[in-house]
Amino acid sequence: MNIAVLGVATTKFGELWDTSPRVLVREAVNGALADAQVALEDIDAIYVGNMLSGMLGNQENLGAFYAEELGITAASTKVEGACASGGLAVHQGVLGILSGLYRRVLVIGVEKMTDHKPEHVASALMGAGSDGERIAGLTFPGLYALMAHACMQKYAITESDMAAVAVKNHYHASLNTYAHFSGGAGSRSAGQMTIEHVMQSPYVADPLKLLDCSPISDGAAAVILGEAAKTTRKSTVHIVGSSVATDTLDLADRSGITSISATVRAAQGAYKQAKLAARDIDVAEAHDCFTIAELMALVDLGFSDGMKKAAQQVGQGAFTLNSSKKLVVNPSGGLKACGHPVGATGVKQIVEITQQLRGEAGKRQAANAHIGLTHNVGGSGAVAVVHLLRS
Amino acid sequence: MNIAVLGVATTKFGELWDTSPRVLVREAVNGALADAQVALEDIDAIYVGNMLSGMLGNQENLGAFYAEELGITAASTKVEGACASGGLAVHQGVLGILSGLYRRVLVIGVEKMTDHKPEHVASALMGAGSDGERIAGLTFPGLYALMAHACMQKYAITESDMAAVAVKNHYHASLNTYAHFSGGAGSRSAGQMTIEHVMQSPYVADPLKLLDCSPISDGAAAVILGEAAKTTRKSTVHIVGSSVATDTLDLADRSGITSISATVRAAQGAYKQAKLAARDIDVAEAHDCFTIAELMALVDLGFSDGMKKAAQQVGQGAFTLNSSKKLVVNPSGGLKACGHPVGATGVKQIVEITQQLRGEAGKRQAANAHIGLTHNVGGSGAVAVVHLLRS
After folding, report:
1. Do B95 and A91 touch (CB under 8 A)?
2. Fewer Cβ atoms within 10 Å of its own Cβ: the N or the C terminal residue of chain A?
3. Touching check for B245 and chain A: CB below 8 Å?
4. Distance (Å) from the C-alpha of residue A66 to the closest C-alpha of chain B?
5. Per the structure, how many domains does chain A have?
6. Sorting pLDDT into bands at 50, 70 and 90, what band is A186?
7. How far is B22 from chain A (nearest CA, A)?
8. Does residue B120 have an active-site annotation?
9. Catalytic residue among B287, B340, B375, B387
């Protein structure tokens, strides 16, 4: 597999009260087109990753909606898989190019979440869970809290171990002007976040505290994919692996909840396609919707040999920009601190890794980054998408 | 393009009060697997066409939902494009096979609409329209009524001309045991429907009357696609064209409303891919959500030379089973009389045409059917999907 990433762009993520999904998508798409030096008329197909437009906005038919907004009549399809909607949309774009039917595919990820009451958003997000979980009154912090407790019992990790993930990712976000918690005016000065800040924040769902949780964000991201042979840019980044796996929606139906098996299988699939291994990865965007989720991902993606080891490594500053260990995880700030506009996340991950592999990531640039990975999860692990990229 | 349709099946369409979407999907998938003589474990990817599960059932993440229900962990993705969700899911399945990444793809279309209050369903369906149309209080019968009035003015067609479409399609449905209006116990004896029945039915949105409108239905359909070379069945039907086009969501933003330009462009795309023309088609399933929609489709797909001619042809019994004209349109009964469980429709069209081209359509078999077409529309024409099949 060798799909050229021709252009990428993201809007700022955050609580963007003064804008609309239409405006966000236009900004991201115009940025990606300019980056790719491709005209809108040259786009053969569009995939839109989005979860909540129907439940929160009464708007479906979102493929046609954004094709119209952009002013073209190309094939356009909405792809939905909860918080993995963006990653799944990228996967469909990859298939579109591989099929030979489309030469250039525009992948859009978008979510506008702050226009709605938080309790409505929390309820709509449970659309990613099972009937039983909804009836039991579970929310996503609750589901990941169950996983966190199981991990704490099985691997003797602590709340402080989890807090260290938040500290790392908020530090990265402080270097990212597009991040929800970029450290700019009006937001918590993310660069100064400490373990104590996280430990002193209020519980949302024991053992997860406010600062263990990713925020409710608005944002959009766009990626333009094409055939490898058709790119003229010397430093073009290519997608060399794209794999999807599923698992049960309900946590209770799984053989274990201290690992996300869909992640394990999606990663194995992508590594095999690309003839790469976890040790080859220089930079990764992992699905850290909660701090515990990143610890699980470090193991499931093959980056750490066991969760206790993963926690020790994070605590010692590994996976952080400018650490001695080569692999940087979530240089954007991740879902945790760059923000998590659900459908946009999986597309933004491709944007971030592409910028990293091009050496265009500015203050948050990972050193010597040539091979990258993105990891996007839907629900509490019912679907996982892993992409591998190289420059 | 040469994609083998390895297996097909559909549930009965109708007001299926005593069953659930899970049961419907299992039935359709088990039927398609048996038809294909393929084991569930051999499925590499699933696409689920569905529009309303989020808005009406609070359930998203539907790809993983049905993978779990079937008991497999393959890649699985929900595809949404309003009433074209099923056709778009088939298109993604085609791309999946063409990409070389998947050897066998299961495409599921499903909708359970009768479990909800009709006014909620009507409101949710307007998720396929524009903000402006929703604010104006328009419903889908209203949108198609605007198109019908425009067609009546421009082409001098009459309400009686539209009624003839209903008579044809209810006659076909009377021969189809899977149809919503199959003529069986408890449903209007469809075989006996006359122009007078349609004309005497109450107006829903002038000039469209109750019997000009497709029903609110439940149902599921499933199709298994694979590489052409891998099929062992002698009479295997192949998809030889698959094309998608979009237009504005809002009728008011189009240059005209007496033709659906997305249909015209999708058909041109598919004909070009398959090196076929409208005159080659022996049997077609067209998107007749309202009777006027079939008259528009007959022209837009190239079957009739103008709408007045189309109306005359239908009135003279053309496009009907066993007529002297070779082309049969909507042998299943179409959306109008076979029923319209939104996400299932585009998949069921592939099931019907495959059975026709295999010569397995029983009482509703079109004579000498070798080349077939399916036509699936989302919203009032914001997206259209055309597939071409041959035996």
Report:
1. no
2. C
3. yes
4. 9
5. 1
6. very low
7. 12
8. no
9. B340
Mean pLDDT of all residues in A186-203: 79
> Would residue A83 show up in a list of annotated catalytic residues for this protein?
yes
For B147-190, write each residue's pLDDT tens digit: 999 999 999 999 999 999 999 999 999 999 999 999 754 445 54
Q: Has residue A344 been placed in a domain?
A: yes
Chain B 70-89, residues with CB within 8 Å of chain A CB atoms: 72-82, 88
Give the chain B residue whose CA is nearest to the CA of A122: B58
Domain with residue A303: its CATH number is: 3.40.47.10
Per-residue model confidence as pLDDT tens digits over B365-388: 999 999 999 999 999 999 999 999
Q: Which of A60, A74, A76 sits opposite B127 (nearest CB)?
A: A60
Could you read off the pLDDT of A305-346 as tens digits, one per residue? 999 999 999 999 999 998 877 899 999 999 999 999 999 999
pLDDT at residue B188 in the model: 52
Residue B191 covered by a domain: no
* B316 reaches A (C-beta below 8 A): no
Q: Which domain holds residue A53?
A: 3-117+215-390
Name beta bridge partners: A4. A226, A238
Is residue A129 in some structural domain?
A: no
Does A150 fall in a domain? no
What is the ipTM metric for this complex?
Answer: 0.95
